[in-house]
Amino acid sequence: MAIFNHLLLLLSLVPLVLSYPFVPPTCYTKVLGMARDLTQWAADLKRDPETSYCMAHMPDLYLDVHNGCVMYKMRTYISLVEGLRERRCAYTREVRKLGVTIRQLFIFMSEKCHGELAFTSFDCAALERRHTAY
């Protein structure tokens, strides 16, 4: 019976231990993850048949949070998304959602994580080049 109780206790603690976040996300890890996700999301929207028409005129989006020019790149991209004039593009939910999420990352980087981020390069041309992997 004691073995059964220990086994039951162990089986009830395993899901609890596995679901506990051992490393709480820092501002840096949140920004890094969001930038990686947004870079991939923008590339996926360019390939998606439903949104490729709208995204064809948009530059490739590559967000390197270590590059000092990333803030300028995000501001420019946000203004391009907001400036879409084509009726079909202006109401495309996924494209609008991308713009809103980039704005959230911009605010997060400029206001919430301001002291935690350190830019290791200031190469604006590197953000303009086509990158296939983050």
Automatic annotation (TrEMBL):
<dbReference type="InterPro" id="IPR029253">
    <property type="entry name" value="CYTL1"/>
</dbReference>
<dbReference type="GO" id="GO:0045944">
    <property type="term" value="P:positive regulation of transcription by RNA polymerase II"/>
</dbReference>
<feature type="signal peptide">
    <location>
        <begin position="1"/>
        <end position="19"/>
    </location>
</feature>
<dbReference type="Pfam" id="PF15153">
    <property type="entry name" value="CYTL1"/>
</dbReference>
<keyword id="KW-0732">Signal</keyword>
<protein>
    <submittedName>
        <fullName>Cytokine-like protein 1</fullName>
    </submittedName>
</protein>
